Amino acid sequence: APPTAPAATVPASTALASAIVDTLVHRIGKDAQAARPHDWLAATIFTLRNEIIERWMESTKAAHAAGAKRVYYLSLEFLIGRLLRDALSNLRHDDEVAEALATLGVDLAQIEEIEPDAALGNGGLGRLAACFMESLASLDLPAYGYGIRYVNGMFRQRLDDGWQMELPENWLAHGNPWEFERRESAYFVGFGGEVTSAAEGRVHWSPAEAVEAVAFDTPMVGWRGKRVNTLRLWNARAFDPIKLDQFNAGDFKGALDGQLRAETLTRVLYPNDSTPAGQELRLRQEYFFSSASIQDIVRRHVQYFGDIRTLADKAAIQLNDTHPAVAVAELMRILTDFHELPFDVAWDITRATFGYTNHTLLPEALESWPLPLFERLLPRHMQIVYAINAKLLREASKVEGIDGRAIAAISLIDEGGERRVRMANLAFAGSHSVNGVAALHTELMKKTVFADLHRLYPDRINNKTNGITPRRWLQQCNPGLTALLGEAIGPDFQDDAAKLTALVPFADDASFRERFAAVKRSNKVTLSTYIKESMGLTLDPDAIFDIQIKRIHEYKRQLLGIIETVALYDQIRSHPERRWTPRVKLFAGKAASSYHNAKLIIKLANDVAKRINADPAIGDLLKVAFVPNYNVSMAERIIPAADLSEQISTAGMEASGTGNMKFALNGALTIGTLDGANIEIKDHVGDDNIFIFGLTADEVAEKRAGGYRGRDVIAGSAELAQAVNAIASGVFSPDDPSRYKGLMDGLYDHDWFMLAADFDAYAAAQRDVDAKWNDADSWGRSAILNVANMGWFSSDRTIGEYAKQIWGVM
Ligand code: 26Q
């Protein structure tokens, strides 16, 4: 076949098939006979890429021609997952490409499954960044994501006899057909060294070491291919990759030292999603990526607009948590030292340019760096932080009601004990907008961690409730439901998720409810087949699929779900004559490698599953599964099959949650606390269509202040006491009876997460779930009303709010 060059549109099926074969031959170097699935995957992506590239260049040119303001989303994490289905679906080429591949004897679904999951993030924060990139393109906003091209993303989780093992995830092993290395976009990033003063009050920083940041670009395709934006990930490289003189002198290791040291920077994602360990390498990563990104943004601005003083009119930079907060000091350095702007002018530009999003209130999760480390690594930035702090505290001291205690809380330097640089205070001071990610979270920000900064700048904190992209989290992951929705209400919801409300009347339509239930059942059968094949466990698709999938954390209370499972198990055994409602309890999630209790909770879930699943007295009434290696692709498989979504964090501790939104959008009912975005989900879907239980955030705070003791509560709840005692005494760990003694003792003596306090209410809510499930009409009505009312949680809505209220680009 002659070489074909697909133009702006991909040609019809046969031409498309020959284009894919042509790519296979000329790019991969294989013919159709020799090609293996990975070759077909790469050939398909390269072929599709041709169209994407054209739209990508059009998008860039149009923004340039319009002199448009650009959005820059800085994030240490982008949990984007697989891209082929996303790109195919957003370009509306899924059917065409499936047909073309079928003529070649290739199953599209099968090659989609072997695409590695790009897991450059831990959990919610990283996935939010990925949903935002998709929505920015879908809303036709010119935007760049900036991050790090980790060679090893989130570790792969293996279970060894129920214990979590971490294996490196080499997502680049087969090459990455989505990325474009931009050797021309490279920047010098320095570390350490010293600052000397020069003439006219100028300073000079001479770093002791430097690495080169090289850009790798990945296209982010919006819905209907309207726009293609850039995700720019930085890779670290040594300037002088090999010291040939050393090499020739026989010092092979020394010759490659610099290369190794540079590459170590972007080698691995920190698999912690709280309690920052404070390692030097992490601060180096943060500065490396912040510096490269700020240099790139400033270079583009000066090239396009000529005058650095107009930066804030043409660039909005959003900080995804404090991880890139050092960018505030880096921009100040470039504006003052390099562009020679006066400090106050630079500060006004900086604050007008940055916005900061906070994702946690847990004090132990707030980033701060020991001052000696910060100063040694970034001596010039340390001076700048001092100068900002002097200005900040001068301003604060003029405000009535701000006393010494408040000044100490506002300061960029924590002076209690070992002195530390507070990254949240730096991000707050350096931004014109500081937002929380759900209404409750934003109110708690004002009352707790940022109370004093809020008094000083009362207009700065605002709320932007999180959202999820309905393309990936409905259309792509749940084609059955998407087709049914289209039949019922037409296709408009695909362009505007708010239009899902047209579904409301269908909740009362018995024949629609039946079809809706059939789609859910079919998704459950598909998941059951996967679980059977991967874990050897048989599930009953007519049981309630009750699912808790998320990072393992004590505040998320997987332990509450497990203890309630144990209590239910005991009830079924004690009262076999009762009419029990069959349940499947499914758990999945990764624990940070150093988080002892989280790893023990994983082992407990596995031990409980082993015992219950093997108990002939239980049969199909209760099955428990811990699915290994939870990631984006696993979520896409599990969520469409869920009946019940577990969102049971201690009230006040989950900033928002976004998994909660994915489940409800796919027709699961939520059992949850009044925490994070659960509250807003309840407001949207209605009190009758959600199971809310437990203490409120205020009640949690009150109880903590009032000397709450888990021991007293456990003594008063027979069901809880039985379950806790069974676990503590080794019923589920006969090979090591004391394995869970410490974990259970914690509930008696320091139940910080109020598990005992919420247990009875949770168990009662679970029995309400059973009752509703047994009224199929009532359950079906509620499930449909969830789908109908979840459109507001589209990340298009969220991004629209950021665009109008923070970035000024809409
Ligand atoms: C910090 C310093 C050093 C090493 C690691 C980290 C680190 C990394 C990741 C700290 C936190 C994270 C991730 C936090 C996160 O995912 N937060 C979640 O953000 C979601 C999106 O807003 C919310 O929905 C969740 O409630 C919140 O827990």
**What is the beta-strand fraction?**
15-25%
Tell me which CATH architecture of the largest domain applies here: 3-Layer(aba) Sandwich
State mean pLDDT (0 to 100 scale): 96
- Spell out the CATH superfamily of the largest domain: Glycogen Phosphorylase B
* Strand order of the biggest β-sheet: 7-10-11-4-1-12-13-17-18
Question: Poorly predicted ranges (pLDDT <50, ≥5 residues)?
Answer: 1-12
How big is the Rg?
A: 27 Å
Distance between the termini: 48 Å
Label the structural class. Answer: alpha/beta
Measured as a percent range, the helix fraction is: 40-55%
The backbone outline, from C-alpha atoms, is globular
Ligands (ions, cofactors included): ligand 26Q
CATH class of the largest domain: Alpha Beta
Number of strands: 24
Q: What is the tally of helical segments?
A: 33
- What is the oligomeric state here? single chain
Largest sheet: 9 strands, mixed
Fold and architecture overview:
It is globular, with a radius of gyration of 27 Å. Strand 19, helix 22 and strand 20 form a beta-alpha-beta unit. The protein is built from 33 helices and 24 strands. The model is unreliable at 1-12 (pLDDT under 50). 49% of the residues lie in helices and 15% in strands. The strands form six sheets. The protein has a nine-stranded mixed sheet. A six-stranded parallel sheet has the order 21-20-19-22-23-24, sandwiched between helices. The structure holds ligand 26Q. Phosphorylase is an important allosteric enzyme in carbohydrate metabolism. Enzymes from different sources differ in their regulatory mechanisms and in their natural substrates. However, all known phosphorylases share catalytic and structural properties.
